[in-house]
Amino acid sequence: MTTPDTVFFLGNARYGEFEPLRVSGLRVGLIRDVRSRGWCADDEAFDTVVPWDPEEGAEGLTVLAGRLREESAACVLNLREAYVEPYARLLAVLGLPALPVDEVAALRSKELMRRLFTERIGPSSTGRYGRAGSAADVVDFGERNGWPVVVKPAALYSSLFVLTVPGPEAAAEVFEQVRQGVAEHVRAKGMPERFTALQVEEFLSGSNHSVDLVVDRDGTPWPSPVVDVLTGADLGGDDFHHFARFAPSRADAEDQHRMTGLAVDAVRAMGLRLCAAHVEFVLTPQGPRLLEVGIRPGGHRARVLHQAHGISFMDAYAAVLRGEKPDLTPRYDRPFGIVTPFARDTGVFTGLRGFDRVTSLPTYAGHSLYHAPGATAGTAAHGHWQILSAELSADGPADLLRDITAVWQMSDLVQTRPSEARKVPSAGRPHLLIVGGKDSGFRSIAGLDVRITLLQERANLSELQERRADGLFLVEQLDPAWARTMAGSLHRGEAPFDAVLSFAEQHLLTASLIGEDLGIAHNPVRAVRHSRDKGLMRDLLAVHGLPTVRHRVCADAGEAAAFQRELGTPVVVKPADGSGSRGVTLARTPAEAAEGWHRAGNTGAAVIAEEYVTGRELSVETLTLDGAHQVVAVTEKLTSGAPSFVETGHQMPAALEPAVAQSVADTAGALLTALGHRWGPAHTEVMLRADGSLAVIETQTRFGGDQIWEMVELVTGVRLAAATAAGLLGVETPVLPASAGGAAIRFFAHENVVLEGVEGVEEARKLPGVVEVRATVRPGQRLGPLTGSGSRQGYVLAVGATRQEAVTRAEAAHAAVRFDVRDAADPQ
What is the value of pTM for the model shown? Predict the structure, then answer.
């Protein structure tokens, strides 16, 4: 069997650009620029990858050419302006027909382009232009040709440093801004001095469009359909950055025909052959006028042409290089566009705010993120490239334009902070991804010397998180699919992640899946899944001979009733993935079990019925680092009792005989080992029966809620979140000195009353040992039954030299807060 030919891309290729080649039976290879920090598809996306160091010059190209011959390269494509000249040199070394290197270098000059257009097509083919060696040249040009005028680099691309000069009074300031920006950019990139040249041009008023072509070895241009462009200036800004490219074109058929013909004339005027070409126009009231030609495909144009018209531009590009006839025939017309939002204020990129505004658009079809937080971002006028792109696919052109405009109006989407406030990570500084959560987890991690990127939902964002996170990506609702996609995009950037974690119940599994996706440090998916599914956990306990209770996962209310009837004793019916006492019912009869099933099922989760056990309820707070489990503390719990068992208080450490404490610790450790729990805290609830035997209630691969994490810090000095992050990343975290011998919390848990007022909060805060007093209700609020932790109305937290002293202090503070209530059934 013959191996298919390989088409190589020089230096860089993005998703959406190369995949159509495989439909034609070709292999796809990448010549990876090892010096580039530009966004590129992963190596795994290509059939073969060959490294290339541009700084090795001619010698490196010779070595590269040898490797390509070994790989049976059919041809090499170039998609990027930065590689135009190295590409010509490589083709020369390979002995493939191409434009001479010196000719390619000359043709990158916009001044030469304009001269060739004027001489070979005619003065009306383009706008008036001139060299700009000084502000005086700009003023002279403006006075002769009219204001406004445009000052721009004579050889750069991507609309970098392009500014409008409205009149002579602004000429000096604008010229100096462009001159300095271009000079710094050229120096930083190590480009030849000729790239610092500037040009002044007539401002052409009209709509922006482009045509991409392939040119065969005879110099015959083959054009593709017109693609429309909206710049920042078109949408009300002051920047010529190409914000949107879309097709089919809105221009009428005659104007599209004229632009296509002018693109063909431009390519011929420049003498191009065996290449791709990207031609840009302004469609003025007098007809199309040429702006410039790039000797490579236009940015995002191949993807737009493929999605909007069914055209594989890369197939056509490869065809002319292989001496074959290209096919650029449209198969259909489907409105499709790509938008590239940018930061409106230049600074350090810190993240995306409210990106769900983009993903929730009716036309949203996907996105790519090109830079991780820490990169410098801003407008093209200040020399910056896009941060991301989003694809939009619509049923009609009006829908497409509506959503393009909607993205433009999200002016706060790309967030930056001033460059002088930039946090520059030290060499080797580990990078941690945190998924969701509140300050209970974030607070202690914030003190670690690590780089933090946070995927967060708006409701949980705090001032601390916003200040400390090196990168912040904010959405209204943190959807798992979005989080995984965003994490993958960021990981492919300049600062890949070393570890991922979450301490939020609803995001534990998402964090583990991200870790599995990216191959970075994380808690195993299996451990999280088995801990969150009480049915799986019960099965695991039985397999490993650990203390469990009789149970049944119930598909309907009848199964719950039947289970209670079989046992003949009370059962607890609850959601199989529940927490916080949500949806829990104690059922003593089959009818109550059926009712409990409906209550638990209202949460949308599977329902489990379990044998009801009584005794002292405890929770075991553990910390697992690389599979080694440490019992940090054991908490004694108070609940409201039947029917919902809402927790009304905790005290730490629990008063246990040494043998019992050891049995509790051994049971929790054996369960975590069976789960495969490897990293982070766990909160395991057990019941100590009157006869001294244990029964596991449930476990969660996170720290305990209800401020138990804070009680652990106060009593032991162990910061569970920080210790987990430090362990995952291999950095040190100091253990705080324990500030108390015991801690206790008591919750306000009124039910079925109307609150008239709350008094004594400030007095309670002043009592000895009180750490916090919080009341979370307001006068006039109607309080229903206690159905879960969220039904409570606040708490008091106190510490003491001993557990008993902490309990006494917490209860005194709890009594000092007076809730003035009346029965909800009483008339006002």
Answer: 0.72
